[in-house]
Design goal:
alpha+beta, Cytochrome Bc1 Complex, Chain A, domain 1, 4 domains, 8-stranded mixed β-sheet, 38% helix
Length: 945
C-alpha cells in the first residue's frame, strides 16, 4: 500500500542544528503476498532523490548512487567518456586522498564497485551497518568536491586503465567486437547507441582533462542522481546523515530526457569482420526492438524464449539438437532510448553462415505457422516469477531494483508491476509482436570470420555508415561553473565507525542417510525459495584412472542434462520452466553435482525431476555426438584466447605437461573424440553411489522437511568406489626461465607467476595464515601489485595474487592481463614486487589494514542462499569444527608483523617460481632476452616449439 505526503517531516537535526529536512514524497509497504520492496522516497531541496528500504535480516547496508548519465550523453568523437569518468570517481576528492576511497571501504570490511551502461552510471558499496555514515560521507564528497582533486597524472593513469579494460574485455577475446559492429550498423551515425560504452581507443586518446571536468559539471549534479540505501538502517538517523553530507551540494544544470526516434531499416544490411581469435565463424542477426518498460517488452521476451532460449526453443530443436550448431539463441534487449532483438548462431564445421541464416529465417517462419502454446506461456511466466523473486535474495538486489526503476520511470515501485505485465501476456500478444517486429522485417546481419580461413560471409557486405545527415545536438556545455558546498562542519574529519554489529554465523544441521549420503542444511525464509546441491565425489579426478578418457566426467554431466528413460530433455525443460525451477548437472575437478533451485511451493515437483535425472538417465549416441562436437569446438576456441591459453599452459608448467591434473576435466581433442557411449554408461554405473555423495540444503526448508522430501535417495544402492587422489607434479619447471607462448597481434599479454606449494586448504592452519599474509601483496584492490601495475603505471585493468588450496596440494599464483607494449616491464615488475615483499615483509599500516578488512568483512559473508551454501559446503568438505570462524578471527587479531614476514620469506621466493607470458612475442621478446632469464618458447598446448 502506498502513502503520499505533501508536507515535510519535522525531525530534529542534531548535527547541524535546525535545517531543511528531506521531503517525504511517498512510502510503499508490503500488503499480503504481493511482490514489492517496501521503501520511503524523499527529495532534498537540491533535487537529490533519496530512497530508503529497511531490512534487518543481516547486519549490513548497501549504498547506491545512480547518476542518470551513460554513454548516451556522449558526443561524437568522445565515446567512452561516461565509463572513463566512472573510473575517475574512484581517484579521490577534496577530502579523500587518491586511493583512499577503495582503502576506506575495504578496511571497513566492505566491497565496492561502479558500472556504466548506455543510460546510467552507478556507484555502490556493501558494508557492515556500523559503517554507514562513512559511506554517505564518501559518496557526498565525490559528488560535491571532485574537480579540484583531478590531476593530469590521475587522468592519464585512468585513461590507460580504461584502454586496458577494453583490451581485456573486447579486443583480446573471440567475438569481442561483435557488439561494436552491430551497434554501428543498426543505429544511424550520431545516435548515442551507435558506439559501445567502452568507447573507441582513438576517442580515448583525443580527450583531455578539461573535457572530463565539463562532463562532471554537466551531468553529476544531485538533481540528476538517486541515492538509494537499504539494509540494517535507522531511517531517522540515515536521513540526518544524508541531509548533513548531501544537503548543501548545489544543484547542477537541468537535465532533460533524451527523446529519439526508433532506428528504422530500409533494407537488409550485411556487414562482416575478421576476428583475430575466433576459430569458428559466428552469425549475429539483429532487428530494431523496443525501449525498456515498453508495453511490448514482455511479449518480446516471451517470443525470444520460445524461439531461442532453452531446450524447448525452436532454434535448439533445429540447430543444436540436429548437430548443426554448437549454440543458437535469441534475446530481446530493452534500453532507455531503443532496443534490439537478436539471434546468435555458432555453427559447426559444415554449416555455412549463409545456410545458418537461412535456417534462422526458416525457424521464424515455422514459429509463424506453429504459433504459441499454453505450455509456452506457462514456461515464460514460471521462469519470470522465479527470476523476480530470486532478484530479491540480497539487499544489493533490492536496492538496485529500486534505483533503476526510479532513474528510468520516476517510480521505484516497478518489480510487481513488471511481473503483472508478464502474467497478462497472451498468445495473441506474442503473435502480434512477432508480426510487428520480426516477420518480413529488415535486419542487420553480421558475419564474424576467423583469420586465414576459407569461411565466407552470410552475404556480401552492402552497408557503410552514412554521416551526411548528422546534426550534433546541444549538450549544454556552455557557461558551466563549479560551485562547492559550504558546510558548517569539517569534511576533513572522517566519520567514526559505529558499534560493531553482531554477526551471526548461520545455524545449521547435519545428518546422514542410512545409505551414507552426508547432509548439511540451514533454514532461511527471507524469500520463498530452496537451493540444493547434490555432489558425487570424483569428477575430473576419476580421469586419473584412464587418461585416454580425459574429459569423460564433463561429458557425463552433459548427458545427465538430456533425456531420461521417462522424459525427453524438452519435456523436462518445459516442466522446469513452468515451475520456475532449475536442475542442472555439472562437473568439477573433484565432483559431479546436481544444482537445484526451486520456489518452495514447487519443490516436490522439482525433486521428482531430480529423482528421474539421477536414477533414470537415457544415454544416447545422438546426444553424445553433439556434446563431443561442442566440447571439441570449445577446446579449439580456447587455443586462441590468451587468458585461456595462459591458464592451460601455466597448469602444465606447474603439474607437468602429461599430468592428468592439467586436462582431466575438459580433456583434449583427441581424448574427447575417443569417448564412447559404453564409457559414459560405465562411468555412471561405477562411480554414482550414495556413500560418496553429499547434499547441501539452504532456504525455506526445515531439517525434518528436508529429510522427508529427499527420502527418495534412501533407495540408492551403495557400492565400493575408489576415488583416486590427484597426482603430484610430474615435472619441475626450469629456474630463472620465462616461458613464452606467441599469440600474434594480441592486444594484451597475459602474465602468470607462481609455483606448486603442495599446501592443502586449512581453515585455521597454514593455508589460512598464508591467505592473510598475501592480502597486502595481491589480495585486495589496495594491494601492492594492483596499486603498482594499475594505479601507478596504468599497465593493466587489474593485478592480483593468491594461494589456492583444496585437498590435493595447492599453488601460489600472481597474474594480470597487461597492455602489449608494457609486457616486458610488467613481467619484471611482478618479480620485483614479490621479491621485495618476501625480503622486507609487511608494513605496519598494511598489517592493520589487513586485520580491519578481513575481520570486518565477515558481516557480508552469510547474506544469500548461495553464500550460506558455500559456507556449509566448506564445513562439509573439510570436516570443519563449528567454532572455526571464531578461531579464524582470533588468529587474525593475534597476527604479528614477524609472523607475516616469516611466511612471506618462506613461501614467496620468486626465484623458485615459474614465469609465463602469453602474447605477441614480437612486442616484448627481444627486450626480455636481456633480462637475465632464459627464454623458452611453447605452443598453445604447452609443448616446446
Amino acid at each position: 500500500m502506498k502513502y503520499f505526503y505533501t508536507s515535510a517531516l519535522l525531525l530534529t537535526m542534531t548535527m547541524t542544528g535546525l535545517a531543511q529536512i528531506p521531503k517525504l514524497v511517498e512510502a510503499e509497504t508490503k500488503k499480503g503476498t504481493e511482490l514489492v520492496i517496501p521503501y520511503q522516497k524523499y527529495k532534498l531541496s537540491n533535487g537529490l532523490t533519496v530512497i530508503l528500504t529497511e531490512d534487518h535480516s543481516d547486519p549490513i547496508v548497501h549504498v547506491d548512487v545512480t547518476y542518470h548519465v551513460g554513454s548516451a550523453r556522449e558526443e561524437i568523437g568522445k565515446s567512452g567518456f561516461a565509463h572513463f569518468f566512472e573510473h575517475m570517481m574512484f581517484e579521490g576528492s577534496d577530502h579523500v586522498k587518491s586511493g583512499d576511497h577503495f582503502k576506506t571501504i575495504t578496511a571497513s570490511g566492505g566491497s565496492l564497485n561502479g558500472s556504466t551502461n548506455n543510460d546510467r552510471t552507478n556507484y555502490y558499496e556493501t558494508v557492515p551497518s556500523n559503517q554507514l555514515e562513512k559511506m554517505i560521507w564518501l559518496e557526498s564528497d565525490r559528488m560535491g568536491f571532485l574537480l579540484d582533486a583531478v590531476t593530469q597524472k590521475k587522468f592519464e593513469i585512468q585513461r590507460a586503465t580504461v584502454k586496458n579494460e577494453r583490451g581485456q574485455n573486447y579486443d583480446n577475446r573471440p567475438y569481442g567486437l561483435a557488439g561494436e559492429a552491430i551497434a554501428k550498423a543498426l543505429y544511424p551515425y550520431g545516435h548515442p547507441y551507435s558506439w559501445l560504452t567502452i568507447g573507441y581507443i582513438e576517442d580515448l586518446n583525443s580527450v583531455n582533462v578539461n573535457d572530463l571536468k565539463k562532463f562532471f559539471l554537466r551531468w553529476y549534479g544531485p538533481n540528476n542522481a538517486t541515492l538509494t540505501i537499504g539494509g540494517d538502517i535507522n531511517v531517522k538517523q540515515t536521513l540526518a546523515w544524508i541531509q548533513k553530507y548531501f544537503g548543501n551540494i548545489p544543484a547542477g544544470p537541468v537535465v532533460n530526457p533524451t527523446l529519439l526516434p526508433a532506428p528504422a531499416l530500409e533494407s537488409d544490411r550485411y556487414i562482416s569482420y575478421i576476428d583475430n581469435y575466433a576459430r569458428q565463424p559466428l552469425l549475429y542477426l539483429v532487428f530494431p526492438g523496443v525501449k525498456m518498460y515498453d508495453k511490448d517488452a514482455a511479449a518480446l521476451d516471451a517470443l525470444a524464449m520460445i524461439i531461442g532460449s532453452g531446450e524447448n526453443s525452436l532454434l535448439h530443436k533445429n540447430l543444436i539438437k540436429t548437430g548443426k550448431a554448437g549454440s543458437a539463441s535469441m534475446f530481446s534487449n530493452n534500453q532507455e532510448l531503443a532496443g534490439m532483438i537478436g539471434v546468435q548462431v555458432l555453427p559447426f564445421q559444415g554449416l555455412s553462415l549463409t545456410e545458418a541464416r537461412n535456417m534462422v529465417m526458416a525457424t521464424f517462419d515455422e514459429f509463424g505457422k506453429r504459433g504459441v502454446t499454453d505450455e509456452d506461456l506457462a514456461m515464460f511466466k514460471g521462469r519470470s516469477e522465479a527470476a523476480a523473486i530470486n532478484a530479491l535474495s540480497s539487499i544489493s538486489g533490492k536496492v538496485s531494483e529500486l534505483a533503476a526503476a526510479q532513474t528510468f520511470t520516476g517510480n521505484p515501485n516497478q518489480i510487481g508491476r513488471d511481473l503483472e505485465k508478464i502474467r497478462q501476456v497472451t498468445k495473441a500478444d506474442v503473435m502480434r509482436v512477432y508480426n510487428q517486429y520480426i516477420k518480413g522485417k529488415f535486419s542487420v546481419t553480421l558475419s564474424i570470420l576467423p583469420k586465414e580461413s576459407e569461411f565466407k560471409s552470410a552475404a556480401p557486405d552492402n552497408y557503410t555508415v552514412d554521416k551526411s545527415n548528422y546534426k550534433a545536438p546541444d549538450y549544454g556545455y556552455n557557461g558551466l561553473t563549479y560551485k562547492k558546498a559550504k558546510d558548517k562542519f569539517d569534511r576533513n574529519v572522517q566519520p567514526p565507525s559505529g558499534i560493531n554489529p553482531v554477526v551471526k554465523v548461520p545455524l545449521y544441521w547435519t545428518a546422514k542417510t542410512p545409505n551414507g549420503v552426508q547432509m548439511i542444511g540451514a533454514f532461511n525464509n527471507e524469500i520463498p525459495t530452496v537451493s540444493i546441491t547434490l555432489s558425487i565425489k570424483g569428477g575430473g579426478l576419476l580421469a586419473a584412472k584412464n587418461s585416454a578418457k580425459a574429459g569423460l566426467p564433463s561429458i557425463v554431466a552433459g548427458m545427465l542434462n538430456d533425456d531420461t528413460k521417462k522424459m525427453t530433455a524438452e519435456e523436462i525443460s518445459s516442466k522446469l520452466g513452468v515451475l520456475g525451477s532449475r536442475v542442472r548437472a555439472s562437473a568439477s575437478a573433484t565432483s559431479i553435482s546436481f544444482n537445484i533451485s526451486s520456489l518452495t511451493k514447487n519443490l516436490d515437483q522439482t525433486l521428482k525431476i531430480v529423482e528421474d535425472r539421477l536414477f533414470n538417465p537415457k544415454f544416447t549416441q545422438t546426444t553424445l555426438d553433439r556434446l563431443k562436437k561442442q566440447t571439441i569446438q570449445s577446446l579449439q576456441n580456447a587455443k586462441t584466447q590468451p587468458a585461456s591459453v595462459a591458464s592451460t599452459v601455466f597448469n602444465k608448467l606447474l603439474y607437468g605437461r602429461d599430468n592428468i591434473r592439467t586436462y582431466g576435466l575438459s580433456g583434449t581433442e583427441e581424448s574427447v573424440k575417443d569417448i564412447t557411449l559404453a564409457d559414459v554408461q560405465a562411468f555412471y554405473d561405477d562411480y554414482f553411489a550414495p556413500n560418496i555423495a553429499n547434499i547441501v540444503v539452504v532456504g525455506e526448508l526445515s531439517e525434518t522437511d528436508a529429510k522427508a522430501k529427499l527420502a527418495f535417495l534412501n533407495n540408492w544402492k551403495t557400492k565400493q568406489v575408489d576415488v583416486p587422489e590427484a597426482p603430484k607434479p610430474t615435472e619441475t619447471p626450469q629456474p630463472k626461465t620465462i616461458y613464452v607462448v606467441d599469440i600474434p597481434r594480441a592486444a594484451q599479454s597475459e602474465i602468470r607467476v607462481g609455483y606448486y606449494t603442495g599446501i592443502n586448504y586449512d581453515a585455521t592452519g597454514l593455508f589460512y595464515r598464508l591467505t592473510t599474509a598475501n592480502y597486502a601483496l595481491g589480495g585486495a584492490f589496495n594491494s601492492r601489485l594492483n596499486m603498482d601495475l594499475r594505479e601507478e603505471k596504468g599497465w593493466t585493468y587489474g593485478a592480483s595474487s593468491s594461494f589456492s588450496g583444496g585437498k590435493f596440494g595447492g599453488t601460489f599464483m600472481a597474474g594480470a592481463g597487461v597492455r602489449a607494449a608494457a609486457t616486458d616491464s610488467a613481467a619484471l615488475e611482478f618479480v620485483k614486487e614479490i621479491r621485495h615483499y618476501a625480503a622486507n615483509g609487511i608494513e605496519p599500516a598494511e598489517l592493520s589494514f589487513t586485520k580491519k578488512s578481513i575481520g570486518q568483512s565477515d558481516a557480508l559473508n552469510y547474506e544469500t542462499n548461495e553464500q550460506k551454501a558455500s559456507f556449509l559446503f566448506r564445513i562439509q568438505e573439510y570436516e570443519l569444527k563449528p567454532g572455526f570462524v571464531a578461531q579464524q578471527i582470533s588468529i587474525l587479531n593475534a597476527l604479528t608483523k614477524e609472523q607475516v614476514d616469516e611466511l612471506a620469506k618462506k613461501y614467496l621466493d620468486v626465484d623458485k617460481m615459474t614465469l609465463l607470458i602469453v602474447g605477441d612475442k614480437k612486442v616484448f621478446l627481444s627486450i626480455l632476452k636481456d633480462s637475465g632469464y632464459n627464454i623458452v618458447e611453447l605452443d598453445a598446448t604447452g609443448k616446446l616449439k
